[in-house]
Amino acid sequence: MNVVGASACGANNHEELGLYVVGASACGANNTIRPASGASCGTIVRMAHQSRLRLGRVSLPDQPYHIITATHERRRLFADPAAARVVILAMRRMHDAGWLHSHAWVLMPDHLHWLFTLGERANLSVTLNRFKSGSAHAVRGLRPEIAHVWQTGFFDHGVRSDEDLRGIARYIVANPLRAGLCGNVGDYPWWDAEWL
Fold this sequence. Notes:
single chain; alpha+beta; globular; 2 domains; Alpha-Beta Plaits; 5-stranded antiparallel sheet
């Protein structure tokens, strides 16, 4: 997937989400991190990846955002209809409580695309952390053996005023088609858009 004008940095720094970001502010493709003695390289790389996702992030009230967040280790947790339903309910609660205004979303088996406008009192990171925490608690209520539901962090794209929200919504809800999960958008059960 190509995301143009994204606020994350680095051209190929989103391997965990399977994204290729075009037009992002680059922070250097060959950044090298040397672990301190006894430190784990994996831990340092994960921490560096999380920092890169936060670089350039701006949280503005009444700003539309397209966010993408993936399940822990890209497990296909939402292939289970009961798990998908509780995540969708958590999204609805965030909308109803005024944290955000949901425009469009698609819940894929291992990740979520969500287009929303941030509420007046909300902070983007706090809002997503609240959603992920609440939805993870609900999923673990169904499947207690699951320790981690979501990956740490998320990808965000602040939608510019000249971008077409409806076009982004169409792109989002067509994800199951591009992934080969269905032959028609209407055949995939886990999506919604206020315009479609």
